[in-house]
Design a protein that fits this description.
5-stranded parallel sheet, 32% helix, alpha/beta, 17% strand, binds iron/sulfur cluster, 6-stranded antiparallel sheet
């Protein structure tokens, strides 16, 4: 038995089947029903049974075979040292637009890890290229229904995709998508658009090709390539300007009209950045057909504005006094200022200053709030009148922690700027609530 497939128990839930069987942290599980467990999906698939045989190696080296009778979907109460029960798969590409290749040195090691793992796509929504997947890996996705799965497409033209991903295996994409389509796996796709490379007629071809996989291909997002100031020695790509952004939007809107008429769904969606770059208003909510790729910045601004206005409309204005400051990247700052103006009309003694932070860490062309660092915030807000609270959007923080990208913590910011900080969740209601400081009376109450 390969040690790779020995999964060490980290915790046994009190009162669980595993505790009854005297399993303890440190014991290792390697087979269920005499089948080797590759990862968490094998494990979960196989323990869903009324009779289960668990092969275990105890910490002292003893081998146990446990026969268990249970309800079909009853859990054994075990959590393992690795949530995935396997190492994360890394990518085998060298994409010309890769953001990780454009990171400065000296960041924490995990920032440089290039994952390309279908299991993380299912669990966390990561986009994967499929270039490191064999037929048996696609079969597993279908067998375990790891859906929806998010796929980084860039282009459906084999040669162009191989060039962009710098990987000779990248040209098999259409066959792989067909296999997933035949297996009825729901997919979403992303196209990172690079000027004069996969835009124009290439984008038309990609949209047309991908639309053949509807309805299992549920949506396609188009986002512009991000540029940091650390591109020395990397493939030369020109950034898009505002005229380019307007042209991309015209192209996408044309496809949306066509597909909406044919299939009742727009299918292709432009990232918020395109609208802001082109100086155009973001579309109404209905144009996002349910916000299928919100996490990818598709429709985030529209949703935030609608939620904010709805939350504001639901409360009675009053004369409370409050002064807060809000941190924002350049991209969203004008929209947030507009919303604040509306709030200040209803609450005349509330002042909320929006501070647009320039991203000096990655370079000024990075304008999203989620990539701001603590160092830039401290440097640019030092000595400013920030009022009684500094509001920090949650998307600047490492998931579940109070730490920013450069390892500066919320507490470091509070200390350096001498102001308590509140974290704003990614929704408009919370922004209203955090600005006002306490819940306001609901209308009619
Ligand atoms: S797939 Fe491409 S963009 Fe993603 S991490 Fe790998 S090299 Fe970078």
């Amino acid at each position: 038995m390969s040690k790779k497939y020995l999964h060490i128990i980290r915790e046994v839930a009190p009162g669980s089947i595993a505790q009854e069987l005297e399993l303890v942290p440190g014991d290792g599980v390697y087979m269920v029903n005499h089948q080797v467990i590759e990862d968490v999906f094998d494990y979960q698939y196989l323990i869903n049974d009324e009779e289960v045989v668990l092969s275990v190696i105890k910490e002292n080296g003893e081998e146990w075979e446990l026969e268990i009778e249970k309800d079909f979907d009853e859990d054994l109460g075990i959590s393992f040292e690795s949530n995935l029960m396997d190492n994360y798969k890394s990518c085998s590409n060298k994409c010309i637009f890769c953001f990780i290749d454009q990171l400065p040195s000296g960041m924490r090691d995990t920032m440089y890890f290039k994952d390309d793992d279908s299991r993380l796509s299912f669990l966390q929504g990561n986009y994967i290229t499929l270039t490191n997947m064999k037929d048996k890996d696609l079969e597993r996705i279908i067998k375990y229904k790891l859906a929806p799965i998010n796929i980084s497409v860039q282009s459906t033209e084999p040669e162009l995709r191989c060039m962009m991903l710098h990987n000779r295996f990248a040209g098999k994409l259409m066959d792989q998508l067909k296999r997933l389509y035949d297996g009825r796996i729901e997919m979403n796709a992303q196209i990172v658009l690079c000027k004069n490379i996969n835009d124009g007629v290439h984008l038309d071809r990609s949209i047309e090709d991908l639309s053949r996989f509807m309805p299992y291909m549920e949506s396609v997002s188009v986002v512009p390539m991000g540029f940091t100031k650390y591109r020395d020695g990397l493939y030369h790509v020109e950034p898009f300007n505002c005229e380019d952004a307007a042209a991309v939007l015209t192209q996408i809107h044309h496809w949306q009209e066509k597909l909406l008429e044919e299939y009742g769904n727009r299918f292709i969606y432009a990232g918020d950045e395109w609208y802001i770059m082109a100086g155009m208003e973001v579309p109404e909510a209905e144009a996002y057909d349910g916000f299928g790729q919100l996490e990818n910045g598709i429709g985030m601004m529209r949703l935030l504005m609608d939620e904010f206005r709805e939350a504001l409309a639901a409360v009675d204005g009053d004369d409370r006094c409050r002064h807060v400051s809000i941190v924002s990247g350049k991209l969203a700052s004008d929209h947030i200022r507009q919303l604040i103006k509306e709030l200040e009309e209803k609450f005349p003694n509330v002042r909320a200053d929006v501070f647009c932070i320039t991203n000096k860490f990655f370079g000024e062309s990075i304008t999203v709030t989620g990539l701001l660092t603590g160092g830039d915030i401290i440097e640019q807000l030092k000595g400013k009148d920030l009022g009684e609270r500094l509001l920090l959007p949650v998307n600047m923080l490492r998931s579940g922690e109070r730490v920013l990208l450069d390892d500066i913590t919320v507490e470091d910011i509070e200390k350096a700027l001498q102001v308590p900080a509140d974290i704003i969740k990614s929704n408009g209601d919370d922004l209203v609530l955090k600005i006002l400081g306490k819940a306001s009376g609901r209308k009619g109450e």
